[in-house]
From TrEMBL:
Keywords: Signal. Residues 1-20 form the signal peptide. InterPro entries: Cyanovirin-N, Cyanovirin-N_sf. Residues 32-136 form the Cyanovirin-N domain. This is Cyanovirin-N domain-containing protein. The gene is 20343851. Gene3D superfamilies: Cyanovirin-N (2.30.60.10). The keyword Signal applies. It holds the Pfam family CVNH.
């Protein structure tokens, strides 16, 4: 009987440990489009009010993110930053997202006469995450 209780207790704690790990992992990488509201841009900064993980207080906090840490821009094309973190948006003056969209466009300083002064839209889904209320770049 004692052996049965011991195995039951071990199974319970193992199950709790695994579910706790998977819950923490899921919370650490949540899309900010489903867990943040009032998403807006100002210059090269992204602002939002993001939910914290369940059970924490307050339930949502104001967060901001410098897009220069997450993105690069070359010849009007935005892309996720890799090794150029913090250096990729040198020619960008401001970024914007239309309401309800996940796509970002940025105004750039034209490199030549007749060059476009706006980047092609980049979908931020999967590039930026809500990590317990804080916006962050996806880590490579």
């Amino acid at each position: 009987m004692n052996l049965l209780l011991l195995f039951s207790a071990l199974f319970f704690f193992a199950t709790e440990a695994v579910s706790g790990i998977s819950t923490r992992t899921a919370l650490a990488r949540r899309s900010f489009f489903t867990t943040c509201k009032d998403v807006r841009t100002s210059g090269v900064f992204l602002f939002a009010t993001c939910d914290k993980k369940p059970g924490s207080d307050p339930k949502s906090i104001h967060s901001y993110l410098d897009l220069r840490n997450c993105l690069t821009q070359f010849n009007g094309t935005l892309a996720p930053a890799t090794h150029l973190k913090g250096q990729g948006l040198d020619q960008v003056t401001a970024c914007a997202m239309t309401s309800g969209s996940t796509k970002l466009t940025c105004s750039v300083i034209p490199q030549c006469a007749g060059c476009q002064n706006q980047t092609n839209p980049l979908d931020l889904e999967g590039i930026i995450h809500n990590n317990d209320g804080q916006l962050e770049c996806k880590q490579e």
